[in-house]
Design goal:
globular; single chain; 160 residues; 7 strands; Aminopeptidase; alpha+beta; 7-stranded mixed sheet
Length: 160
């Protein structure tokens, strides 16, 4: 498989929006309180930029976007970031691309001086949860104060 991971560019916005919404719908993550409904999904490249210590990476196979993941400050904090919108199309799962994207995000987070990385997800996203556990994320009993994804039911944190 010929793949590459790169920071999102304006021309990727429409494709990654489709991926996020499609995968979100697959897992029932539709409507208020779920990541695929965030306003940024329509134009990810404008929300994730180095100036704001955030970055969204897309993975392309033969120049077609099959997924992505991002890092941004959690609730405006300098020490805690959030792993955001890790979504992969079904045909690209199980190939190690989720791990690759997450590792890109965590390396970026460290380079920006973040000390912890938070995420929220859904209990039914078993593959993602397993990946996060393998990468050292620990389960929390409740979301961090300031989360905007009120419909998520799994919360995790990793020291960087």
């Amino acid at each position: 498989m010929n793949y590459k991971v790169q920071p999102i560019e304006v021309q990727h916005d429409a494709e990654i929006c489709k991926v996020i919404k499609q995968v979100g719908a697959e897992y029932g993550a539709i409507g208020e309180g779920y990541g695929p409904s965030d306003p940024e999904v329509e134009m990810m490249s404008r929300f994730y930029n180095d100036d704001s210590a955030s970055r969204y990476f897309v993975v392309l196979v033969d120049e077609i976007i099959i997924g992505g993941a991002g890092i941004a400050s959690f609730d405006g904090r300098d020490d805690v970031c959030e792993l955001r919108k890790l979504f992969l199309l079904p045909e690209s799962r199980g190939l190690g691309l989720g791990k690759l994207l997450t590792e890109h995000c965590l390396e970026y987070a460290k380079s920006k001086g973040y000390k912890k990385c938070y995420l929220d997800t859904l209990n039914r996203m078993k593959g993602a949860i397993s990946l996060y556990e393998k990468l050292g994320f620990k389960h929390l009993t409740q979301p961090l104060q300031g989360t905007i994804h009120s419909s998520c039911d799994v919360w995790m944190l990793k020291k960087l």
